[in-house]
Design a protein that fits this description.
globular; Rossmann fold; 133 residues; alpha/beta
Length: 133
């Protein structure tokens, strides 16, 4: 089960350098094994809105949540203490700590291009690493 970080979704949505790796990852991984935090989802909405890419955002929502079974996970206000602890422990910024705590809470593997997760106990995998046999 994988918590897919914001940067992975955006790489695909914006058709950037590693978009093909992500396409393969998404095609070969059943959507019911994919998770996204509410924080990442809203961040994607902000970025796509600023870039005037609302059609792509709507297509993403349709593909991931309506046609697919990607699960949206939330943290509660009481999780803020753990987020603060993770920020200090691993020297992460708030958004990375949020992702980390969500992955920890739901026992998910973080899929990200952000090397900051390598400083943590859970680590991270890239989409290409998930696909390796």
């Amino acid at each position: 089960m994988y918590l897919v970080d914001t940067n992975v979704w955006l790489e695909r949505l914006l058709d950037q350098e590693r978009a093909e790796d992500i396409r393969r990852f998404l095609d070969e991984t059943p959507s019911e094994r994919l998770f996204i935090t509410d924080f990442a989802f809203h961040s994607i909405g902000v970025v796509m809105s600023k870039l005037n890419r609302m059609e792509a955002l709507l297509r993403f929502v349709q593909d991931a949540f309506m046609d697919g079974a990607v699960a949206l996970v939330h943290l509660k206000p009481e999780d803020t203490q753990r987020i603060a602890s993770v920020i200090k422990q691993f020297n992460l910024d708030f958004d990375d700590a949020y992702q980390y705590v969500a992955a920890e809470k739901h026992d998910l593997t973080i899929v990200s291009f952000d090397s900051d997760f390598e400083r943590t106990e859970r680590g991270r995998k890239t989409p290409a690493e998930v696909l390796k046999p």
